[in-house]
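Bench notes, bay 3.
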Amino acid sequence: IVEAVILSGGLGKRLKKLVPDLPKPMANINGKPFLEIILYNLFIQGFKRVILSTCYKSKIIESYFGNKFLDMEIIYCVEEIPLGTGGAIKKSLEKCQMSNIYILNGDTYLEIDFNQLDKLVKKDNRNILVCTKVNEVSRYGSVILKEGKIIDLKEKSDSAKGLINGGCYVLRKNLFYEYKVNNSFSFEKDFLYKLIKNKDIIPYQVDGLFIDIGIPDDYLRAKKLLIDK
C-alpha cells in the first residue's frame, strides 16, 4: 500500500460554533487535528504518500503538516474554488502515481484493515466502495446490496439500522478518462450511480469504529472515542 487521497477542503458549516476558524479536518480532537489521527492511521498501515485535497483555509493545513508527516510524503492539491467531491478527486488523481488509489474523507474516521482490503484491490480491478453498518441511516442514506453487489443508493430518509457509504473508496487512477465528466461535480450525487449502473464498483464491508465529525454531537463523541488515537 503506497498512496492515498484525503478530501480535506470542507468548510464545516455545521461545526462553526465549536470550530469557528479552521477547516473541518483540522478540528481539535484532544489536542491534535482530526486529520492527524487519519494520517497516523495510514502511516502505521504502510502508506508512503498522501495527497491532501484542500480548499477552505488550505494554508492552515499546509503550515501544520508541511511536506512530510512521519515518513509519509505529503502532496497538496489546492482548489482555488470549490469543485465538489468529484472535482476534488479528479484533480487529486492527476497527482497520483499508482494505478489504484485509496480515497478518504478528511472528516471521517473509519477503522479499516487496509492490507486486507489491498488483497481485494489486487484481485479485482474494479472500483471499490467501503461500506459499514450503523444504527441510524437517516443522516447518511443507505447502500442497497443484492447477492453481494451494489444495486442502488437510497437517499437520506429512513430511520433504521443499515449499511452506509463509509466515505472511503479505491478508484482506478484513469477513472475519469474512461468516464467523461466536468471539472466540478459531486462524486456521490453525480457520478457514483454511473459506476453502479455499469457494475464497475463493488462493496467492501467493514465493522470497525465509524465517526463522521460533521455535526456537533458526533464531533464531541469523537473526542471521547478517539482519546487513545
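Next record in the batch:
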Amino acid sequence: SLENSNFIYRCSLATIKDEETTFTFRENIARTFMAIDPFRLEIDGEGYQVNRGDSCQFNSKQTVHCTGKGDAINIMITDPSYRAMVQFLELKPGEFITEKIENHHFYFVYAGDCIIKDFSFSEVLHEGDLITIEAGLNHARLKIMTEKVLQLVRVDVLKTSMV
C-alpha cells in the first residue's frame, strides 16, 4: 500500500487539480515526476519549469511545491537499488517504433490507440491502457504501430548494481 510504502516501485498518473500544491511527504521514497501538462516546480526553493516530457527527480527529504494544473506521471521507488527512466512518445499516423526489450517496461497509452506486438503476441491498446513487458519473456523486439496520433508514456524500471 502507498501508506505503508510496502512496494519496490509504484507508477501512477497524477492529476493535479489545484493551481498551487505542496507534494505529500513520503518517508524514504525517491520520486520521478514527468510532466504531461506544463508545471512549475520548486524543489527546496529552486525553481524548475517542466513541460511535456520533461522530468524531475527528488527524494522524500525535499520540499516540493507545484504550480499549475494537469497530468503528470509519478514514479515512486523505495528500494535504492532501482531507478526509473520515463519518456513521453508521440507517434503520427502510420509511424511506428521498434524497441529491443532489455529491462522491465511499462507502456501507458495517454491518448489514442495502438497495436503492440512481438513474435509471441499482438495486443490492441486504447487510451488509458497499461501494458507491462519484462525482458526475458521472449520479448526480444517490440513493435508499436498507430493509425492516428498516439501519445504514449514509456517507463523503464532498472535495477542498478550501485546503491
